[in-house]
Amino acid sequence: MMMINLNFSKYLTILFVSIMSYTPNTIIAQNIVPQSSTMSILGTSNVHDWEIKVGKINGELGTTNSKQINTLVIKIPVLSLKSGKSIMDGKTYDAFDAKKNPTITFQLIEASQTKLMDKDAEILLTGNLTMAGETKKISFKTIGKITKSGDYQLKGSAPVKMTDFKIKPPTAFFGSMTTGDAVTVKFDVTFKG
């Protein structure tokens, strides 16, 4: 009788552990692949259009076992924003108040429930974007897919207004050169699968 109880307990324990270790919504996290990821900020001024490249992108993507996005965090150090022009870079850092607000962060709230596959899928991402100490909820469309190497790729663009984040659009040359309020964040980021 003792042998049967021990075997039954053993099988019950194995069954319990098996059930607890399998959940359909398990988060599988992937880190960003910097060498395969690009991001830039495109804007206008009364003199010419401009582009700032993001030099460093940190992030993590979480998916369920069924390949649906359920977490996404992107962090960008403000001082990694580079235009190739030191005066413009300085104005950008001042506009962000980079010493006080050194990081731009996007934290996913919700993703349309599209399963990532090996072909392009349109996904609506909604999350909190924090810049210059201000956080606003934004939504934008992205194209997501699983690449041939098994990595996860998201690409697209998001329109942003600087004044929504209490950022005063930078000026130069005693105000004779002004930047437009609206910018576009263009991205193509890859997460290790």
UniProtKB/TrEMBL annotation:
Origin: domain of life: Bacteria
Q: Which residues form the Lipid/polyisoprenoid-binding YceI-like domain?
A: 29-192
Task: List the Pfam families.
Answer: YceI
User: Which named protein is this?
Assistant: Lipid/polyisoprenoid-binding YceI-like domain-containing protein
* Transmembrane regions listed in the UniProt entry: none
Q: Which InterPro entries match?
A: Lipid/polyisoprenoid-bd_YceI, TTHA0802/YceI-like_sf
Q: Which SUPFAM superfamilies match?
A: YceI-like
Q: What is the lineage of its organism?
A: Bacteria, Pseudomonadati, Bacteroidota, Flavobacteriia, Flavobacteriales
